[in-house]
Structure formats: structure tokens, C-alpha cells
Amino acid sequence: MDRDIRLEAVVTNSRPVGEMHRSVTLFSSTMGLVNAVVFGGRKGKKAALAPLFSYGTFQLYYNPVNDSYSITEEASEFTPTGIMQSLEATYTASYFCEICSRVGADEHCAVYNLLRRSLLILDSDPDSHRKILIDFTWKLIQISGLATDLKTCPSCEKQYAHNETLFFSTQMNTPVCRTCADTDRLFLMPGSRKYLQFTLPLSIEEAFKVELYESNQIRLRDFLLGWISHFAQGPLKTLQSGLL
Ligand SMILES: [Zn+2]
After folding, report:
1. Would you list the domain boundaries of the chain?
2. Is domain 4-78 in CATH 2.40.50.140, yes or no?
3. What is the CA(173)–ligand 1 centre distance, in A?
């Protein structure tokens, strides 16, 4: 095994190790999640290495003796400035990182790209944290292979009426018609459904520019977070804050 590794990655977690060092979690395009130590990462020159929510190309050293990685260098492409100025935006970024760590195992590259681009949008417009949360979650649902065209019920194959409200099947993990639903906790109003259909083929940058009214944003956020949380199998720490 090669001991020097190069990774394109996002820093999804950063925590102190003793007085001197830092441990970070990276979400990489090729290996998914990797934990690595920044020796001397709490003070001096190394303190600037691998800040939370940044991304770039990392040079890692693998130590086979204790099966661990350390970061030796980083060519940073992005360091957040706007995200940290708002508590909601910080929580939104933490949610992005937490959910990607949970569901991104099979699609490293696509999830990495979505995470990186969503952090960039959030950083440039932290006040629109709810809108980017919606667009990000919808794209992640698509990458995870859960999205349907929202035109016909995947259970009974009935075509939805124009103004029909959709419900949810926890068994199939997808929106369905009222008859096929097994919970009434999650529902998708016609306006929100139209938004999801319209943004389905768009890139995250294009989707972010599509307007969505405040009241629709709240309903759609609740639906998409319910959907992805169900897929993630278990509560998400970042959603328990009540800030998102
Ligand atoms: Zn049905």
C-alpha cells in the first residue's frame, strides 16, 4: 500500500486532540469518509490547515503501524467566510456534512460534488440557508436513487391528479398516493410537488435560483427532511437543534 495519498475532500468535522493536535473527518471523492490527524493542528502554522467546511486537495500520510492517517499538506480551494457568520447557516452546513456521512457511502463522487457545491452556495448567501437546504436535500435524494418522477404512484401506478396532495410510504421510502400511504405525518402539497418536478433535471446552482415562497419552503423542508431522515435510519443530531 502506498503511504502517501492524495485526496479531494471536504472537512466535515474537526475536534481537538489533547493540547496540541486536531483530528478531522474528511468526505472524499474517492474513499468516502476518512479520519486524519493534523499534528500540531491547534497552534501556530498548522492551525490554518483543514478548517471546518473547507475543501481542497489533501496530502495524507498513512501509518500502517496504528492504521491511521495524518494530513501533511493541503491545497485549499475553498475556506468558508459567510457560513460562520450565521448560526442557522452553520447548522445547515453541519447538517449537509452529517447526512452525507450517513447516506453517501455508495456514491462518493456524486455526493462529494454535491456537498462541495452546496457549501459554496451557502457561503455566498448564508441568509438563504433554508432554500439551499431544500435544493441540497432534493439532489441528495436523487443521488441516493430514491427519487421518482412524482407523476404516478410507484405503488399502485395510478396517475396523480393535477392538484393532488401526495403522502408517504415508509415501507417503500417514497411519496405515494393517499391510499398507498402508511403514515399521515408526511405530505407533499401540489405547489411543492411542482417545484420538485421542475428542479429535478437542474443542477444545484440552477435549482437554487428558482424562486420558492416562504410558506412553501417551510412545508417542503419538513417533507424532504422527513424523507431523508427516514432513509438515514435514525435521528440526525443537527436536526434536533430545532434551528433548521
Ligand atoms: Zn397508490
Report:
1. 4-78, 86-241
2. yes
3. 13
Q: What is the mean pLDDT of the chain?
A: 94
Long-range pairs of 168-175 with CB within 8 A, sequence gap ≥ 24:
168/223, 168/226, 168/227, 168/230, 170/230, 173/146, 173/227, 173/230, 173/231, 174/146, 174/148, 175/148, 175/150, 175/227
pLDDT tens by residue, 132-154: 999 999 999 999 999 999 999 99
User: How far is ligand 1, taken at its centre, from the CA of residue 104, in Å?
Assistant: 29
Give the predicted TM-score (pTM) of the model: 0.94
Q: What is the CATH number of domain 86-241?
A: 1.20.1440.120
Q: Can you tell me the distance from the alpha carbon of 81 to that of 86, in angstroms, rounded to the nearest whole number?
A: 10
CA of 181 to the centre of ligand 1 (A): 7
Q: How far is the CA of 184 from the centre of ligand 1 (A)?
A: 14
